[in-house]
Amino acid sequence: MIIGVISDTHARSLENIPSQVKANMGEVDLIVHAGDFTEATVVEGLKGFGEMRAVAGNMDAPEVKGMLPSRDIFEVNGKRIGVTHGSGGPYDLAERVRQMFDDVDIIIFGHSHMPCNEVQEGCLLFNPGRAMKSYGLLTIEEEVKSEIIEI
To answer: CA 72, CA 82: separation in Å to the nearest integer?
Structure first.
């Protein structure tokens, strides 16, 4: 399964998201958004590309925060995935989000606008960065392959 990972779109509409990101989200099996859509129209627009899992971020409108959880856990091909936006300063964010989830194989997060693709204590910590500059792809089969794509 191929998962398209985006975060921090900070967009007023789907048209504000780079065309490369939208094209790639139309090609994946699942979209995961790690928060800061900003507007509900962006949530609805991304759902038009296919199945999506998402969490709310600190900059999301109240309507978005009412639609989405602040964190999510789900499973893909036997791998447990935790998703959160993150909070606080950007430094040590990966370590802080790691503390939020006990028994997961992958943690997807956003907030810092800085890409992260590293394994800590057997857990992949994955932040695709800000959607205007980068996005991520996770291929989950027997093994997990992770990639950050710069725009």
So the answer is: 6
Is the pLDDT assigned to residue 90 strictly greater than 90?
no
What the block records as the tokens of 86 is 């993150």
Strands (E), the chain: 2-6, 30-33, 52-54, 71-76, 79-84, 106-108, 116-120, 123-127, 134-140, 144-150
**Which pLDDT score is estimated for 138?**
98
Give the pLDDT confidence score for residue 74 in this predicted structure: 98
What is the identity of the amino acid at 58?
N
Domain range annotation of the chain = 2-150
- The tokens 């989200």 sit on which residue? 25
Q: Is the pLDDT of residue 51 over 90?
A: yes
Which CB contacts under 8 angstroms, 24+ apart, belong to 94-98?
Answer: 94/118, 94/120, 94/125, 94/127, 95/120, 97/125, 98/123, 98/125
- CATH homologous superfamily of 2-150 equals Metallo-dependent phosphatases (3.60.21.10)
CA distances to 69, 70, 91 from 66, in Å: 8, 10, 28
Token pair 């996770």 is found at: 138
Over residues 125-146, the pLDDT tens digits come to 999 999 999 999 999 998 999 9
